[in-house]
Amino acid sequence: MSVAKKENKKITTHVLQTMKNQGEKISMLTAYDYSIAKILDAAGIDILLVGDSASNVMAGHETTLPITLDQMIYHAQSVIRAVERAFVVVDLPFGTYQGNSTKALNSAISIMKESGAHAVKLEGGSEIEESVRRILSAGIPVMGHLGLTPQSIYKFGTYSVRAKEEAEAKKLLDDALLLQDIGCFSIVLEKIPAELGRKVSESVQIPVIGIGAGNGTDGQVLVVHDMLGITKDFSPRFLRRYLNLFDTIKEATEKYIGDVKSGDFPSDQEQY
Ligand code: KIV
User: Fold this and answer.
1) Which one of 127, 211, 231, 262 has the fewest CB atoms closer than 10 angstroms to its CB?
2) 3-241 architecture in CATH?
3) Nearest CA to 211 among 224, 203, 202?
């Protein structure tokens, strides 16, 4: 039986650590609004990530860079209202933590205080050590994020697989150990070779959640719009689509439009 079911309680950092210790895989999806979060929570998802991918899938921006702290807090508040069981992590958006640990602490406190979220996620390793330490010192759980870190897309220049070369792979492993040692409760690894994903997961004691990081991590995360097929044009190799909601919703909308135009809707039974 799963750790959370047996203990019959909300998911916490302690439950997530127990899952890793007992070899139970951790499920994580993004969520940005009340209605979808309610469904995912009812299904038994372990972690909901209010990702800054909201910038792409909710707001239509090309990158995650434009989303603001207030917009992230708005999404997080909506998700928190829906959740009974899942552990809710919120991304600190670009520009709210890099290079200024006091600003980082204030950003994290705003998220925790104004949304009621359970933890924050930051992208990067040694470069943001001071910011992570300050946030942790306030008692706020921090999830790290290494590998392809979309807030650095203009530095990378491409969304292709990271850490294929030895030097970058070594830095990634060193960063994972650093994040663990300073007190992060978990790390996300994005788009790296499966072998490295497994190596990092075996090298640290804390849970490692992968997205395009292979089957050797302690859990998996996907962007919910990709997993449900609401997005259509984004098809990386790591993505498994469980539905094709773009076409399903489009067909339903076409049928509705037809029914309105023809006068078929509303029927006698659908009016007062
Ligand atoms: O913002 C996001 O959706 C993320 C996931 C890709 C892990 O950070």
Assistant:
1) 262
2) Alpha-Beta Barrel (3.20)
3) 224
Tens of pLDDT, residues 133-178 = 999 999 999 999 999 999 999 999 999 999 999 999 999 999 999 9
Instruction: Return the active site residues.
Output: 190
Q: Is 30 in the pocket of ligand 1 (CB under 6 A)?
A: yes
By three-state DSSP, how is residue 54 classified? helix
Dist. CA 261 → ligand 1 center (Å): 41
Residue type, 48: L
- Domain map of the chain by residue range? 3-241, 245-272
Span from the CA of 254 to the centroid of ligand 1 (angstroms): 32
The tens digit of pLDDT for each residue in 235-255 reads: 999 999 999 999 999 999 999
Q: What predicted TM-score, i.e. pTM, was given to this entire model? A: 0.97
Omega within 30 of 0 (cis) for the link into 266: yes
188 touches ligand 1 (CB under 6 Å): yes
